[in-house]
Specification:
N-(1-d-carboxylethyl)-l-norvaline Dehydrogenase, domain 2, 336 residues, NADP, Rossmann fold, 7 strands, 6-phosphogluconate dehydrogenase, decarboxylating, gluconate utilization, single chain, phosphogluconate dehydrogenase (decarboxylating) activity, seven-stranded mixed sheet, EC 1.1.1.44, alpha/beta
Length: 336
Protein backbone atom coordinates (compact mmCIF):
# COMPACT_ATOMS: atom_id res chain seq x y z
CA UNK A 1 0.00 0.00 0.00
CA UNK A 2 1.43 3.38 -1.01
CA UNK A 3 2.17 5.91 1.68
CA UNK A 4 1.59 9.64 1.82
CA UNK A 5 4.38 12.21 1.48
CA UNK A 6 3.23 14.42 4.34
CA UNK A 7 0.66 14.53 7.11
CA UNK A 8 -1.22 17.38 8.76
CA UNK A 9 -2.45 17.26 12.36
CA UNK A 10 -5.21 19.73 13.21
CA UNK A 11 -8.16 20.32 10.91
CA UNK A 12 -9.24 23.76 12.08
CA UNK A 13 -9.29 26.33 9.29
CA UNK A 14 -5.51 26.89 9.08
CA UNK A 15 -4.65 23.19 9.11
CA UNK A 16 -7.40 22.36 6.64
CA UNK A 17 -6.36 25.10 4.23
CA UNK A 18 -2.68 24.19 4.39
CA UNK A 19 -3.57 20.55 3.73
CA UNK A 20 -5.61 21.61 0.69
CA UNK A 21 -2.78 23.87 -0.47
CA UNK A 22 -0.29 20.99 -0.25
CA UNK A 23 -2.72 18.66 -2.02
CA UNK A 24 -3.16 21.16 -4.84
CA UNK A 25 0.59 20.90 -5.57
CA UNK A 26 0.26 17.22 -6.40
CA UNK A 27 0.87 15.64 -3.00
CA UNK A 28 -1.29 13.08 -1.24
CA UNK A 29 -1.84 14.22 2.34
CA UNK A 30 -2.68 12.23 5.45
CA UNK A 31 -4.96 14.23 7.75
CA UNK A 32 -5.80 13.75 11.41
CA UNK A 33 -7.73 15.65 14.04
CA UNK A 34 -8.24 14.86 17.70
CA UNK A 35 -12.00 14.82 17.13
CA UNK A 36 -13.13 12.39 14.45
CA UNK A 37 -16.02 14.66 13.45
CA UNK A 38 -13.73 17.45 12.27
CA UNK A 39 -11.75 15.09 10.05
CA UNK A 40 -14.95 13.66 8.56
CA UNK A 41 -16.22 17.18 7.94
CA UNK A 42 -13.08 18.17 6.00
CA UNK A 43 -13.25 15.04 3.85
CA UNK A 44 -16.98 15.50 3.16
CA UNK A 45 -16.49 19.13 2.14
CA UNK A 46 -13.63 18.31 -0.24
CA UNK A 47 -14.66 15.30 -2.34
CA UNK A 48 -12.15 14.08 -4.87
CA UNK A 49 -9.18 15.65 -3.09
CA UNK A 50 -6.12 13.55 -2.30
CA UNK A 51 -6.70 13.88 1.44
CA UNK A 52 -6.54 10.57 3.27
CA UNK A 53 -8.26 10.58 6.68
CA UNK A 54 -7.01 8.68 9.72
CA UNK A 55 -8.73 8.36 13.06
CA UNK A 56 -5.96 7.08 15.32
CA UNK A 57 -2.52 8.59 15.83
CA UNK A 58 -0.80 5.28 15.14
CA UNK A 59 -2.55 4.76 11.80
CA UNK A 60 -1.82 8.36 10.85
CA UNK A 61 1.91 8.08 11.59
CA UNK A 62 2.23 4.68 9.91
CA UNK A 63 0.61 6.06 6.75
CA UNK A 64 3.58 8.33 6.01
CA UNK A 65 6.76 7.84 4.01
CA UNK A 66 9.99 7.92 6.00
CA UNK A 67 11.52 10.11 7.14
CA UNK A 68 8.05 11.23 8.13
CA UNK A 69 7.04 14.86 7.64
CA UNK A 70 4.27 15.92 10.01
CA UNK A 71 2.84 19.43 10.07
CA UNK A 72 1.21 20.41 13.37
CA UNK A 73 -1.53 23.03 13.16
CA UNK A 74 -2.93 22.87 16.67
CA UNK A 75 -3.48 25.41 19.43
CA UNK A 76 -0.18 26.78 20.68
CA UNK A 77 0.95 25.91 24.18
CA UNK A 78 -0.23 22.80 25.98
CA UNK A 79 -2.06 21.64 22.85
CA UNK A 80 1.20 21.47 20.92
CA UNK A 81 2.96 19.54 23.70
CA UNK A 82 0.04 17.12 23.89
CA UNK A 83 0.09 16.53 20.13
CA UNK A 84 3.85 15.91 20.14
CA UNK A 85 3.56 13.50 23.06
CA UNK A 86 0.86 11.54 21.23
CA UNK A 87 3.05 11.22 18.13
CA UNK A 88 6.36 10.25 19.72
CA UNK A 89 5.62 6.58 20.53
CA UNK A 90 5.12 5.88 16.82
CA UNK A 91 7.94 7.96 15.34
CA UNK A 92 11.34 6.76 14.16
CA UNK A 93 14.61 8.60 14.60
CA UNK A 94 15.03 11.20 11.87
CA UNK A 95 11.31 11.91 11.49
CA UNK A 96 10.38 15.58 11.22
CA UNK A 97 7.73 17.51 13.13
CA UNK A 98 6.87 20.96 11.79
CA UNK A 99 5.05 23.27 14.21
CA UNK A 100 3.16 25.84 12.13
CA UNK A 101 1.26 27.40 15.01
CA UNK A 102 1.63 30.83 16.64
CA UNK A 103 4.10 29.44 19.15
CA UNK A 104 6.22 31.36 21.66
CA UNK A 105 9.80 31.03 20.44
CA UNK A 106 11.10 29.93 23.86
CA UNK A 107 8.71 26.97 23.73
CA UNK A 108 10.08 26.12 20.30
CA UNK A 109 13.65 26.20 21.63
CA UNK A 110 12.66 23.84 24.45
CA UNK A 111 10.83 21.43 22.16
CA UNK A 112 13.66 21.45 19.65
CA UNK A 113 16.19 20.47 22.28
CA UNK A 114 13.96 17.81 23.85
CA UNK A 115 13.11 16.20 20.52
CA UNK A 116 16.68 16.42 19.23
CA UNK A 117 17.85 14.52 22.31
CA UNK A 118 15.46 11.71 21.33
CA UNK A 119 16.65 11.65 17.72
CA UNK A 120 13.72 13.53 16.17
CA UNK A 121 13.84 16.69 14.06
CA UNK A 122 11.74 19.73 14.92
CA UNK A 123 11.09 22.77 12.74
CA UNK A 124 9.34 25.73 14.37
CA UNK A 125 7.70 27.53 11.47
CA UNK A 126 5.99 30.89 11.35
CA UNK A 127 3.10 30.99 8.88
CA UNK A 128 1.73 34.37 7.83
CA UNK A 129 -1.21 35.19 5.61
CA UNK A 130 -4.22 34.05 7.57
CA UNK A 131 -6.86 31.64 6.30
CA UNK A 132 -6.67 32.77 2.68
CA UNK A 133 -2.88 32.75 2.69
CA UNK A 134 -2.82 29.22 4.06
CA UNK A 135 -4.94 28.09 1.13
CA UNK A 136 -3.44 30.16 -1.67
CA UNK A 137 0.11 30.81 -0.49
CA UNK A 138 1.45 32.02 2.86
CA UNK A 139 4.75 33.54 3.87
CA UNK A 140 6.69 30.82 5.68
CA UNK A 141 9.45 31.29 8.27
CA UNK A 142 11.06 27.95 9.22
CA UNK A 143 13.69 27.50 11.91
CA UNK A 144 15.36 24.43 13.37
CA UNK A 145 17.84 21.85 12.11
CA UNK A 146 19.10 22.94 8.69
CA UNK A 147 19.34 19.36 7.42
CA UNK A 148 15.72 18.71 8.39
CA UNK A 149 14.62 21.91 6.68
CA UNK A 150 16.22 20.72 3.44
CA UNK A 151 13.97 17.65 3.53
CA UNK A 152 10.78 19.72 3.76
CA UNK A 153 11.92 22.74 1.73
CA UNK A 154 10.53 21.44 -1.61
CA UNK A 155 7.01 21.27 -0.18
CA UNK A 156 7.26 24.59 1.67
CA UNK A 157 8.52 26.38 -1.42
CA UNK A 158 5.69 24.98 -3.54
CA UNK A 159 2.93 26.07 -1.17
CA UNK A 160 4.36 29.50 -0.30
CA UNK A 161 3.31 32.82 -1.77
CA UNK A 162 5.45 34.11 -4.63
CA UNK A 163 7.23 37.46 -4.36
CA UNK A 164 7.41 40.05 -7.14
CA UNK A 165 10.80 38.66 -8.19
CA UNK A 166 9.28 35.22 -8.69
CA UNK A 167 10.90 33.69 -5.61
CA UNK A 168 8.82 31.77 -3.04
CA UNK A 169 8.18 33.59 0.24
CA UNK A 170 10.07 31.05 2.34
CA UNK A 171 13.64 30.95 3.59
CA UNK A 172 15.49 29.13 6.33
CA UNK A 173 15.67 31.59 9.24
CA UNK A 174 18.05 29.84 11.62
CA UNK A 175 18.39 27.32 14.42
CA UNK A 176 16.09 26.59 17.35
CA UNK A 177 13.24 29.12 17.66
CA UNK A 178 14.43 31.55 14.98
CA UNK A 179 11.44 30.98 12.71
CA UNK A 180 8.87 31.60 15.41
CA UNK A 181 10.88 34.59 16.68
CA UNK A 182 10.70 36.26 13.28
CA UNK A 183 6.96 35.52 13.09
CA UNK A 184 6.52 37.05 16.54
CA UNK A 185 8.29 40.26 15.51
CA UNK A 186 6.31 40.31 12.25
CA UNK A 187 3.10 40.18 14.28
CA UNK A 188 4.36 42.88 16.62
CA UNK A 189 5.04 45.20 13.69
CA UNK A 190 1.54 44.46 12.43
CA UNK A 191 0.12 45.42 15.84
CA UNK A 192 1.88 48.77 15.48
CA UNK A 193 0.67 49.28 11.91
CA UNK A 194 -2.92 48.57 12.88
CA UNK A 195 -2.80 51.00 15.79
CA UNK A 196 -1.29 53.72 13.56
CA UNK A 197 -4.09 53.20 11.05
CA UNK A 198 -6.70 53.32 13.82
CA UNK A 199 -5.31 56.61 15.12
CA UNK A 200 -5.12 58.09 11.61
CA UNK A 201 -8.78 57.15 11.17
CA UNK A 202 -9.65 58.77 14.51
CA UNK A 203 -7.95 62.02 13.51
CA UNK A 204 -9.62 62.17 10.11
CA UNK A 205 -13.03 61.23 11.52
CA UNK A 206 -12.85 63.42 14.61
CA UNK A 207 -10.77 66.31 13.30
CA UNK A 208 -12.27 66.66 9.83
CA UNK A 209 -15.56 64.80 10.23
CA UNK A 210 -14.82 62.92 7.02
CA UNK A 211 -17.60 60.65 5.83
CA UNK A 212 -16.92 56.96 5.34
CA UNK A 213 -16.93 57.48 1.58
CA UNK A 214 -14.35 60.26 1.97
CA UNK A 215 -12.26 58.05 4.22
CA UNK A 216 -12.36 55.27 1.63
CA UNK A 217 -11.24 57.72 -1.06
CA UNK A 218 -8.41 59.04 1.14
CA UNK A 219 -7.09 55.58 1.98
CA UNK A 220 -7.36 54.56 -1.67
CA UNK A 221 -5.12 57.48 -2.59
CA UNK A 222 -2.70 56.62 0.19
CA UNK A 223 -2.52 53.04 -1.04
CA UNK A 224 -1.24 54.29 -4.38
CA UNK A 225 1.84 55.89 -2.82
CA UNK A 226 4.51 55.13 -0.23
CA UNK A 227 1.90 53.86 2.26
CA UNK A 228 0.86 51.08 -0.12
CA UNK A 229 0.40 47.91 1.93
CA UNK A 230 -1.95 45.03 2.61
CA UNK A 231 -3.40 46.71 5.71
CA UNK A 232 -4.07 50.03 3.97
CA UNK A 233 -5.59 48.12 1.06
CA UNK A 234 -8.11 46.23 3.19
CA UNK A 235 -8.83 49.28 5.35
CA UNK A 236 -9.98 51.32 2.36
CA UNK A 237 -12.55 48.63 1.62
CA UNK A 238 -13.74 48.36 5.23
CA UNK A 239 -15.05 51.94 5.25
CA UNK A 240 -17.73 51.20 2.65
CA UNK A 241 -18.90 47.82 3.99
CA UNK A 242 -22.48 47.78 5.29
CA UNK A 243 -24.43 45.34 7.44
CA UNK A 244 -27.77 43.74 6.60
CA UNK A 245 -29.56 46.88 7.81
CA UNK A 246 -27.59 49.11 5.48
CA UNK A 247 -25.47 50.65 8.24
CA UNK A 248 -21.75 51.15 7.83
CA UNK A 249 -19.98 48.39 9.75
CA UNK A 250 -17.21 50.70 10.92
CA UNK A 251 -19.83 52.79 12.74
CA UNK A 252 -21.54 49.93 14.56
CA UNK A 253 -18.79 47.40 15.24
CA UNK A 254 -17.85 46.94 18.90
CA UNK A 255 -14.74 48.95 19.72
CA UNK A 256 -12.86 46.14 21.43
CA UNK A 257 -9.71 44.52 20.04
CA UNK A 258 -8.58 41.06 21.16
CA UNK A 259 -5.03 39.72 20.89
CA UNK A 260 -3.29 36.36 20.66
CA UNK A 261 -0.20 37.29 22.67
CA UNK A 262 2.40 37.78 19.95
CA UNK A 263 2.45 41.55 20.38
CA UNK A 264 3.00 41.12 24.10
CA UNK A 265 5.80 38.64 23.46
CA UNK A 266 7.49 41.10 21.11
CA UNK A 267 7.38 43.82 23.75
CA UNK A 268 8.66 41.47 26.44
CA UNK A 269 11.55 40.41 24.21
CA UNK A 270 12.50 44.04 23.58
CA UNK A 271 12.68 44.61 27.35
CA UNK A 272 14.79 41.49 27.81
CA UNK A 273 17.18 42.72 25.11
CA UNK A 274 17.20 46.33 26.27
CA UNK A 275 15.86 47.54 22.93
CA UNK A 276 13.42 50.48 22.64
CA UNK A 277 10.10 49.41 21.16
CA UNK A 278 7.71 52.06 22.38
CA UNK A 279 5.31 52.18 19.44
CA UNK A 280 4.61 48.45 19.30
CA UNK A 281 4.36 48.27 23.09
CA UNK A 282 1.87 51.15 23.18
CA UNK A 283 -0.16 49.40 20.49
CA UNK A 284 -0.43 46.38 22.79
CA UNK A 285 -1.57 48.63 25.63
CA UNK A 286 -4.14 50.23 23.31
CA UNK A 287 -5.69 46.79 22.77
CA UNK A 288 -5.80 46.20 26.50
CA UNK A 289 -7.52 49.56 27.01
CA UNK A 290 -10.03 48.81 24.25
CA UNK A 291 -11.01 45.60 26.01
CA UNK A 292 -11.97 47.55 29.16
CA UNK A 293 -15.30 48.50 27.64
CA UNK A 294 -17.31 48.75 30.86
CA UNK A 295 -14.69 50.90 32.56
CA UNK A 296 -14.43 53.20 29.54
CA UNK A 297 -18.20 53.67 29.40
CA UNK A 298 -18.33 54.41 33.13
CA UNK A 299 -15.45 56.88 32.87
CA UNK A 300 -17.10 58.70 29.96
CA UNK A 301 -20.08 59.47 32.20
CA UNK A 302 -18.03 61.23 34.88
CA UNK A 303 -15.08 62.66 32.96
CA UNK A 304 -15.44 65.33 30.30
CA UNK A 305 -12.77 64.81 27.68
CA UNK A 306 -11.48 67.36 25.19
CA UNK A 307 -13.65 68.25 22.23
CA UNK A 308 -12.32 68.03 18.68
CA UNK A 309 -11.42 71.42 17.27
CA UNK A 310 -11.81 72.38 13.60
CA UNK A 311 -8.70 71.19 11.78
CA UNK A 312 -8.47 74.05 9.31
CA UNK A 313 -7.47 73.35 5.72
CA UNK A 314 -8.74 69.85 4.89
CA UNK A 315 -6.12 68.90 2.30
CA UNK A 316 -3.28 70.15 4.50
CA UNK A 317 -4.55 68.24 7.53
CA UNK A 318 -4.96 65.00 5.55
CA UNK A 319 -1.40 65.34 4.26
CA UNK A 320 -0.07 65.88 7.79
CA UNK A 321 -1.85 62.75 8.98
CA UNK A 322 -0.49 60.80 6.01
CA UNK A 323 3.06 61.90 6.75
CA UNK A 324 2.66 61.16 10.46
CA UNK A 325 1.39 57.68 9.60
CA UNK A 326 4.38 57.08 7.34
CA UNK A 327 6.81 58.27 10.03
CA UNK A 328 5.07 56.06 12.57
CA UNK A 329 5.54 53.02 10.33
CA UNK A 330 9.27 53.78 10.12
CA UNK A 331 9.54 54.18 13.89
CA UNK A 332 7.56 50.98 14.42
CA UNK A 333 10.28 48.77 12.96
CA UNK A 334 12.83 47.50 15.50
CA UNK A 335 16.10 49.48 15.27
CA UNK A 336 18.26 46.50 14.31
Amino acid sequence: MSKQQIGVVGMAVMGRNLALNIESRGYTVSVFNRSREKTEEVIAENPGKKLVPYYTVQEFVESLETPRRILLMVKAGAGTDSAIDSLKPYLDKGDIIIDGGNTFFQDTIRRNRELSAEGFNFIGTGVSGGEEGALKGPSIMPGGQKEAYELVAPILKQIAAVAEDGEPCVTYIGADGAGHYVKMVHNGIEYGDMQLIAEAYALLKGGLALSNEELAKTFTEWNEGELSSYLIDITKDIFTKKDEEGKYLVDVILDEAANKGTGKWTSQSSLDLGEPLSLITESVFARYISSLKDQRVAASKVLSGPQAQPAGDKAEFIEKVRRALYLGKIVSFPPR
